From TrEMBL:
Ranges where the NodB homology domain occurs: 56-277
This protein's name: Chitooligosaccharide deacetylase
A Pfam family the protein falls into: Polysacc_deac_1
Organism annotation: Methylobacterium crusticola
UniProt xrefs under InterPro entries: Glyco_hydro/deAcase_b/a-brl, NODB_dom, PgdA-like
Described purpose of this protein according to its UniProt entry: Is involved in generating a small heat-stable compound (Nod), an acylated oligomer of N-acetylglucosamine, that stimulates mitosis in various plant protoplasts.
CDD domains per record: CE4_HpPgdA_like (cd10938)
Highest taxon of source: Bacteria
Record family assignment: Belongs to the polysaccharide deacetylase family.
Length: 296
């Protein structure tokens, strides 16, 4: 049964009141873009579901794979392909695995904010700003980084979180799934918010190949995922739009997934019209054209 009173309280307005994304040009000579990004949750991916997992050591080992194997392998692959990416890291992962986080930074990649405990932001939760501040503090203390980009744990958002990010000066977020180009958020009071670099849902490797016990998801073979990723990339290139990856070292850092990612990124690099960039670079391009008044 539906709660009819709750249904009646749903606002009769779009959930996102920002105007459609402007078709700002990509840097020459490119006609489309890929935001290459990774989510580094480590064990916080599992403790955020159930704090009791901290004492279930095999469950925790799925997240621990990131620091021991997955992230080093991915860093080597990106170096081999001469690519720079954005790594959204939970504060917990930075505190627990400082050497892993330092290696990402040392390799020249962008570090983004991904919460502290990887907790789902839910409307009314009292800890949303505490998680935000603790993440900022950890990145500054451990890495000397003031992040300009944020990706919400579990990819979820609230208006309070969006306003808090604007107050903290975040340049861009990357969580929403409602466009194929960057756009500027509009806050609840009508004020401009951060730039959004929308996520491309099909490029979330967790959906296709998470190697974990008790997962209800099947592991799709390389041929299926590679076909899906290539087809979407080619269509987005025809549109002159952008794809955004959400890759996890505890998934794409596994041998069968790394081979798939190597083949896909090699293909992406072979596309002369595709700008493969970090979030800061793509958001900076948007801000440049916005400030210049470039026609959409």
């Amino acid at each position: 049964m539906h709660d009819r009173d709750a249904l009646a309280r749903i606002p009769l307005v779009p959930s996102n009141t920002a105007p459609p994304a402007p078709a700002y040009p990509w840097p020459a000579p490119y006609g489309a873009a890929m935001f290459l990004s990774f989510d580094v949750d480590a064990e916080s991916a599992w403790t955020s579901k159930d704090a009791g997992h901290a004492e279930r050591l095999v469950t925790m080992s799925y997240g621990g794979y990131e620091a021991r194997v997955g992230t080093p392998r991915l860093l080597a692959l990106l170096d081999q392909l001469d690519l720079k990416a954005t790594f959204f890291i939970t504060g917990w992962a930075v505190d627990a695995h400082p050497a892993m986080a330092e290696a990402i930074l040392r390799a020249g990649h962008e570090i983004g904010h991904h919460g502290y405990h990887h907790l789902l932001p839910d409307p009314g939760d009292p800890w949303i700003e505490e998680e935000l501040e603790r993440g900022f503090e950890t990145l500054a203390r451990r890495l000397g980084v003031v992040p300009v980009g944020y990706r919400a744990p579990y990819g979820e958002f609230t208006e309070g979180l969006r306003a808090a990010l604007a107050r903290r000066g975040i340049l861009y977020t990357s969580s929403f799934r409602d466009d194929v180009r960057p756009y500027r958020h509009r806050l609840g009071d009508g004020a401009p918010g951060p730039i959004e670099l929308p996520v491309t849902a099909s490029y979330d490797d967790w959906m296709h190949g998470l190697s974990a016990r008790f997962s209800p998801r099947p592991i799709f073979p390389r041929e299926h995922v590679l076909s899906l990723w290539k087809d979407e990339l080619d269509e987005v290139r025809d549109w002159g739009a952008m794809v955004t990856t959400v890759l996890h070292p505890q998934c794409s850092g596994r041998p069968m997934r790394l081979r798939l990612l190597r083949e896909f990124l090699t293909y992406a690099r072979s596309c002369p019209d595709l700008w493969i960039a970090t979030g800061a670079e793509i958001a900076g391009n948007f801000r440049h054209h916005e400030a210049a008044g470039t026609p959409a």
